[in-house]
Amino acid sequence: MHTNVPPVNNSILSVSTLNRLVRDCLESAFPLSWVGGEISNLTYAASGHVYFSLKDAGAQVRCVMWRSRAQTLGWRLENGQKVEARALVSFYEPRGEFQLNIEAIRRAGQGDLFERFLRLKAQLENEGIFAVDRKRPLPAFPRRLAIVTSPQAAALRDVLSTLHRRAPHVAISLFPTPVQGDGAGERIAAAIAEAGASDCDTVILCRGGGSIEDLWAFNEECVARAIVACPLPVISGVGHETDFTIADFAADQRAPTPTAAAELAAPEQSRLLEQLARLQDRLQRQSTRRLADRQQTLDWLRSRLVHPAERIASQRRAIDQLTGRLRRALITTTQQQRLRLAALSQRAATAAPQTADRHQTLDQLSRRLAQAAHWQTAQRQMKLNALAAGLKQLDPQAVLSRGYALVIGPDGRALRDNLAVNPGDRLKISLAHGKLDATVLPVVAPDKAD
């Protein structure tokens, strides 16, 4: 371990400066460390700070635990206790004393227990033992509660007094078991199983506070599995509010104290009676209002109620009226149909076809159609002959028959200009009858042509 010691020179240091340098060197050279030993010279100061010494067979060291740390300890230090302290090496300048500032403290051996606690917690958590969706709801109105604890435990008295004050109507069954010591875990698991087989509605598992060794029975794996296997919901009220055990995580509901567990298990009777009174009053009001509504409906129905003889007479009158209306409607409909039939007969007689006139008209139309068709045919024939004559005049073969020739140049096109060929080019000449192959001799310019 290397420390930054200020260089030594011939200057004279004051005692305060020297002590401050020593404190700085110590605090910077030593990190937070766990130190084990036996408590001696213990003093609880009025300020709340705790002063003591840690010693072993060969040495001792002064220690101080400030009030803010001591208040969260949860148990009382005593001379002769074997402890392990997490401390910062320091130096009290005013008195020039080497000391340890205690950050946390535990009974000797608790480190191993805590490691076992963490390993088991991780294992059961991976198995889903602590899953929230596995938790069962507590019954709203339990009739009997099962309490698993030691008959000598102060926690039992707290639970019983709380239940007697809050819910004297709830029956209680005690399933006694040791809550610490060898074999306590198995005995607790057996008591939980016995309680689960009873006619109770909820199980309260409780004991007072203590060290991790005192509460270790509730960190046993068998207890956690017994809680999960219990068919009844289990409330864990073990230790103080700052104490956590495996049973707390496995239980369906965790209470910070045994008293709180009793409060969770059973609703307060006075509140239930108040709620019952409110519901009774509400039921009475609703019943009164509904009865009044029914009476009003009855009066309305009574006003509509008619004697059967009067109803029969009314229906007879209605039938007579309907019969008269039906008779009148039949007479009116028959008369209308007769008038309509007469009108249709007259229209049919008037609309009878005149056969002779229709035949004469048909003959005239046939003659006119034949004449129009003959005239149209003659017109179309004359137009066709004219088009044929024009088309014959445009026929290249007719032009050739008059002595003309069609000359095709080397590029396969009709030759119109002598300048489009050169001497030696081969030409194809089409006549009216047959074809010729020719070769170009000298080309005569247009101004020298005949």
Automatic annotation (TrEMBL):
GO BP terms, alphabetized: DNA catabolic process
Every Exonuclease VII large subunit C-terminal domain range: 130-438
Places the protein is found: Cytoplasm
Keyword Hydrolase: yes
Keyword Transcription: no
Gene Ontology molecular function, alphabetical: exodeoxyribonuclease VII activity; nucleic acid binding
Enzyme Commission identifier(s): 3.1.11.6
Domain OB-fold nucleic acid binding: 13-106
Catalysis performed (reactions): Exonucleolytic cleavage in either 5'- to 3'- or 3'- to 5'-direction to yield nucleoside 5'-phosphates
InterPro entries found in the cross-reference section: Exonuc_VII_L, Exonuc_VII_lsu_C, OB-fold_nuc-bd_dom
GO CC term (a single one): cytoplasm
Chief place of localization: cytoplasm
Keywords: Cytoplasm, Exonuclease, Hydrolase, Nuclease
EC class: hydrolase
Pfam families documented for this protein: Exonuc_VII_L, tRNA_anti_2
Protein family according to the UniProt entry: Belongs to the XseA family.
Protein's job: Bidirectionally degrades single-stranded DNA into large acid-insoluble oligonucleotides, which are then degraded further into small acid-soluble oligonucleotides.
Subunit structure: Heterooligomer composed of large and small subunits.
NCBIfam families documented for this protein: xseA (TIGR00237)
Name the UniProt record assigns to this protein: Exodeoxyribonuclease 7 large subunit
Organism: Azonexus hydrophilus
Taxonomic lineage of the native organism: Bacteria, Pseudomonadati, Pseudomonadota, Betaproteobacteria, Rhodocyclales
Gene: xseA
